Amino acid sequence: VSTQSTGKQRPTMSAVVVIDWQVDFCSPDGLLGDPTDPCRPMINATNKFVEAARTAGAIIVWVQAGYEIDQTLPPGMAAAFRGFGDEVATRLVRPDLPGFELEGSLKPDPLDMRVTKHTYSAFFGTNLAARLRLKGVKKLYFVGTMTSVCVAASAQMAVFEGFEAEIASDACFDKPEAHAATLGHFGTFYGQVRTTDEMLADLSPE
Known about the structure:
Layout: E1 14-19, H1 23-26, H2 40-56, E2 59-65, H3 75-82, H4 86-91, E3 113-117, H5 128-134, E4 139-145, H6 147-160, E5 164-173, H7 176-189, E6 192-194, H8 196-203
Parallel strand pairs: 1-2, 1-4, 2-3, 4-5, 5-6
Helix pairs in contact: 2-8, 6-7
């Protein structure tokens, strides 16, 4: 899915929001990991995009899910997690366990923003929107996992917070059917869906 861009944006008014590329979600040895490493092409695309966007002057935001079923999860999410079994419910991306950490090939910079979220959205119950507004950011580019859950929840809420939002079709992971359906829905009702190369054209000098 690709839709026409609204045009170039000054890089300093833009941010790349990286959602949940964490060990438990996307490393082969993570709690939900797959030994075939299906996230690898999307993680590689994320690394390339982040490096180029940072060089161009965009802000980079690393968002990590930190779930503690009896402390931070809303009741509805906690009930759903219990349905996944005890190990997932009690250990998935728990902040004191290794699965919470970013996937090992990712390269955050000390000056990048870091956010820990406790629901599917990077904006609910965090100060991310306020921090971005203080920086003068108007446009957000979303990458990460899963397209249909945390990426979609974050990008949709970004629109409600008044930001222009795009999802990178080649740097987000989900089951193919869910990925395609979510991108189609987002591109129709919320914002833009493009590749990272198309997004970088917005950030490049005239």
